[in-house]
């Protein structure tokens, strides 16, 4: 009999395939080399295929969907309960085949090539920003060891770079040999980050949905572009709270014996990079609200009055996530909250 459902354990070179027929009997259990995968599934009638949402999963999902198959991607954590003990590739494929058949399984939308390019743009930018920060900290640390300090912030760092590039007499010549290449690398990275920022801004200007998101306080081009690259129109989420929960901005729940209990900390599940951007945006916005309270809504002013600032920042990030979902799913413009 022909298989109606497959599970695939993805890898770099060797793929494990597990297929069952309409009665649940195993009819396919074999390994395929990378070059054999497309040819094998091209010869199969349309079937349901389950895979974990891991590296290269979106590429293979698009490839197999083009062959007429119904491909579903699943979070690895949701597949794990269906994998028998003594893990190996064959049992991983078996777990994918079983999990994809469950009616309550949650699936990951297949990303387009454009979405993956956009995600790569942000990941590259994040890597360069981390490297730039490391170089700045290294220069400050080396000078601090010699008893010299610099002011905080971008202005202080720029003054420090000027001292290094002009060979300030206060800096020992032997130390300048170490600092000069670090300053050169910092300048180069800063230029590359600027180029990526311009590329992101140009793409935002061409997307109506992204432009609408930038009208939300605490949301700029970087957050708007990253959000659309991650979730598209957001319709895979049933509500704004589901989106906030996916980002890890909601508290964990622990229910037992009919008693409902929420923990004091957010779950920090889901997309870490997008969550970090939303929290940074909320922090920047609340800094302005604290300086000029009339800029903020009554809700956030009341929250700042009774809770610590960091709690208010996370709460604002969660609220922003819900607003983003509402605007993406409905296509509406941002409406500022009414004054008290």
UniProtKB/TrEMBL annotation:
Q: Which InterPro entries match?
A: Transp_IS110-like_N, Transpos_IS110, Transposase_20
Query: Transposase IS110-like N-terminal domain spans which residues?
Result: 7-145
Checking Pfam families in the record gives: DEDD_Tnp_IS110, Transposase_20
**Where do the TM regions start and end?**
none
Q: Which residues form the Transposase IS116/IS110/IS902 C-terminal domain?
A: 212-287
Protein name (database record): IS110 family transposase
Instruction: Report the source organism.
Output: Mesorhizobium humile
